[in-house]
Amino acid sequence: VWDNKERALKWFQEHNGMKYDWWGIVRFIIPFVSQKDGQWFCSEAIAEALGHSDAASFSPENLKLFCKRT
After folding, report:
1. What is d(CA 3, CA 19) in angstroms, rounded to the nearest whole number?
2. If 0-12 CB within 10 Å is exposed, 13-18 middle and 19+ buried, where does residue 50 land?
3. Which of 39, 46, 50, 58 is most exposed by smallest CB count within 10 Å?
């Protein structure tokens, strides 16, 4: 995952200007809140840029733990 910083940088360049998904944070408390297309919350964007297929499930804490393991 960490060996492809070019892919991550390209992802962020391609998604520059996208809106912040405030409701994405709420999904960790109220799981039935729907995902907003074209909007990202912080850990979701990072997980997606790193190539994770289920990026929306990464809370900031989960992403931190994942990064410590790899």
Report:
1. 27
2. buried
3. 39
Q: Is the dihedral of CA 49, 66, 40, 53 positive or negative?
A: positive
**pTM greater than 0.90:** no
Tokens 């190539």 — which residue? Answer: 51
Report how far residue 21's alpha carbon sits from residue 55's, in angstroms, rounded to the nearest whole number. 13
Tens of pLDDT, residue by residue over 39-64, are 898 898 999 998 888 888 888 898 88
Strand partners, 20: 40
> Is residue 36 a contact partner of residue 24, using CB atoms and an 8 Å limit?
yes
Q: Long-range contacts: 17-20, Cβ < 8 Å, 24+?
A: none
